Automatic annotation (TrEMBL):
Signal peptide feature range: none
Keyword Electron transport among record annotations: no
Source organism of the structure: Marinobacterium stanieri
Coiled coil: none
Domain of life: Bacteria
Protein name: Mn2+ and Fe2+ transporters of the NRAMP family
Swiss-Prot/TrEMBL keywords: Membrane, Transmembrane, Transmembrane helix
NCBIfam families in the cross-refs: Nramp_1 (NF037982)
Transmembrane segments: 21-41, 47-64, 93-121, 133-153, 160-177, 197-221, 242-264, 294-317, 346-365, 371-391, 412-431
Amino acid sequence: MKRTPSLPLAPAAKPSWLNNLSVLGPGLLFAATSVGTSHLVQSTRAGALYGLALLLIVIVANAVKYPAFRFASDYLPATGVTLLEAYRRQGRWVLCVYFFITLSSLLFAVSALALMSAGLIKVVFALTLPTHWMALGLIAVTSAILVIGHYNTLERVTKVLVVVMMACTLFATATVIPEISWSEGVQWLPTELDVVGLMFVAALIGWMPVPLDASVWQSLWAKAKAENSEHPPTLAQSRFDFNLSFGGTLLLAVCFMLLGAGLMHDKGIELQSGSAAFSAQLISLYQAVFGSSAGPVIGIAALAIIYSSLLAIMDAFPRALSSLHRRWLDIPEDQDDHKLTESDPFYIGTLVLMAAGAALTYQFFMTSLTSLIDMAATIAFITAPLIAYLNHRAIRSDFVPADCRPGKLMTLYSRFSIAVMISFACSYLYLRFWVS
C-alpha cells in the first residue's frame, strides 16, 4: 500500500516562468557539483590529450545517466519522501551497497576537490604553503561555513558562482573555437587506447557529469528546500530545475573539452599532475583568451566553481549518511520526526570524519591530483549501473502515483541506458584485468 507523503505537495497547476525560476536550487547544487572536477579537470584533460576524439563519449555518458538523475529529481515531489526511503523499501542490502559506494566517494571526492581548490588558491594568491595542509584548512573553513550558514546560504552562494563561471566559460569557448583545426579533419573517436588511456576514459565517464550516487543528494537537497519553503516545488517545477541544470552541465562539459582541444592539443604542452601546476595550466587557458591581466580574475572564478563543488559535496555527505542511518534503523521516512540540522552532532561528526579521511588520503594514497580523481571516478564508473537500476525500480514502484511514473518511452530509454552502462563496466573490467 502506498504511504501518505510526509511533505505537503503543491498544486499540480502549470507554473509560470517566474515561479519556475524561484524554485531553482537543488538542480543548481547538482550543477555546481558537476561543473567542479569532472568538467574543469577531466573535460579539459580529455580535450588536451585527445582533441575532440572523446566528445561523443562525453555526450553519451551524460545521455545514459539522464534517466537515473531525472527519476531522482522526480521522486520527492511525487511521493513526499526521498530516494533513500525508496532504497529502504527495496531491502537492507540496497542500503548497505549505497553505504559502501558513499564511503568510497567520501574518502576521495572531498580530498580531490579540496586539493584542487588549494592548488588554485596557491596560484591566484602566490602562496607557498604545502598544498595538502591548505586543503585540510579549506575543509575546516568549509565545515564552519556549513554549520553557521545552513542550506539557504549554500543555495544562494551556489547560484551566483554557477552563473558567473558559465558566462566566462561560454565566452572563452566562443573565442577558442576558431583555434581548432577543423579544415584538417577532426577525429571523433579514439583509435588506439592503451591501459592508461582506458583508465582515463573510465574515469571521464564515471564522473560525467557527476557520480550516479549523487542522485540521492538531489533528493535530499530537494527535501531541505521543501522544508525551508512555504510552498514546496511541484513535480513540474522540480523537473524544470533539473532539466535546466542538467542541460547546462552538458554544455559546459563540451565547452571545457573545446578549450582543451583548441588551446592545448597538438601544441606540445605537457599536462601537469600536481594540483598547483595543473591549476596554473587551467588559468593559462583563460589568459590565452582574455589576456594575461585577466589571470587573477579568471583564477578566482575557477576557484569559485571548484569551491562551490566542495561546498555542495561536504553538505551532501552528512545529509546522506544521517538519512541512511535512520533508514537502516528501519524507520519509515514519512513516520520519522527527526529533522537533520547543520548543528546536529551527526552532521558535525560527519564533517570531522571527512577531514580525517582527507588527511589519511593525503598521507597514504595520494601520488597526484589526477590519479586521486581517476581513482574516485573509476569506482563511480563501475557502480553506476546498479544505482541506475535502483532508481529505475524506485520510480516505477507502487509507492509512486501512476501519473508521476515515467511513460513508456522514458522507461525504455532508462532500460537501454542501464544496459549501456553495464556493457561499459563489463568491457572495462575485461580489458583492464584480462586483456592487459
